[in-house]
Amino acid sequence: MGYYIRPAVIKDVVKIRRLISFYAAKNLMLPRDQNYLHKLLANYSVAIANGQFVGTCGFRLWQPDWLEIVSLAVKPEFQHRGIGTALIQSVINKGVSLGFSYFFTLTLVPELFEKFGFKKIGFKKIAFKAQADCRHCPKNDAGPGRGSCNEIPLELKVCA
Ligand SMILES: CC(C)(COP(=O)(O)OP(=O)(O)OC[C@H]1O[C@@H](n2cnc3c(N)ncnc32)[C@H](O)[C@@H]1OP(=O)(O)O)[C@@H](O)C(=O)NCCC(=O)NCCS
């Protein structure tokens, strides 16, 4: 089965939202609404296999020079074929082309990111992210990395 990664386009938004909602219902991802995805559309990539949408990944930019990898998801029936890895690679490539060298993510699947050289970090290192977002998170009942929060922060420094 062949697949390719391309930038997301407006007609992908509904499919991206549905896939993220599917995993959010299983508590594996945070839900993202149509408005959020519409605003960040240019930051998203999608994977296409057999002519259909099968996965997505996006990024957010933080001051002064951090790029956060977000919304990584591949449809269950298309997993374990390297699509998740290819989506991460495409976002890293995009970030590098934009001049970013500090990447981070919050994930339940650190193994996948460690293959790229990502290392686990404490939430303190990305306090800007925790301050901006964690208070809106349904898993935040005892602070970042505590209580119901099972997200693992990782970072990657790419040498220019
Ligand atoms: C995580 C995810 C995107 C991986 O997509 P994928 O296309 O299967 O990824 P790849 O084929 O490139 O790599 C798969 C590897 O990732 C790792 N991996 C994937 N899911 C894993 C999990 N739940 N636990 C541990 N390792 C996992 C394994 O090393 C796996 O290797 P294998 O195929 O030999 O078993 C996909 O499983 C998914 O959509 N999961 C649900 C949503 C989610 O958890 N998103 C991550 C939020 S950051």
UniProtKB/TrEMBL annotation:
<protein>
    <recommendedName>
        <fullName>N-acetyltransferase domain-containing protein</fullName>
    </recommendedName>
</protein>
<dbReference type="InterPro" id="IPR016181">
    <property type="entry name" value="Acyl_CoA_acyltransferase"/>
</dbReference>
<dbReference type="Pfam" id="PF00583">
    <property type="entry name" value="Acetyltransf_1"/>
</dbReference>
<dbReference type="InterPro" id="IPR000182">
    <property type="entry name" value="GNAT_dom"/>
</dbReference>
<dbReference type="GO" id="GO:0016747">
    <property type="term" value="F:acyltransferase activity, transferring groups other than amino-acyl groups"/>
</dbReference>
<feature type="domain" description="N-acetyltransferase">
    <location>
        <begin position="3"/>
        <end position="144"/>
    </location>
</feature>
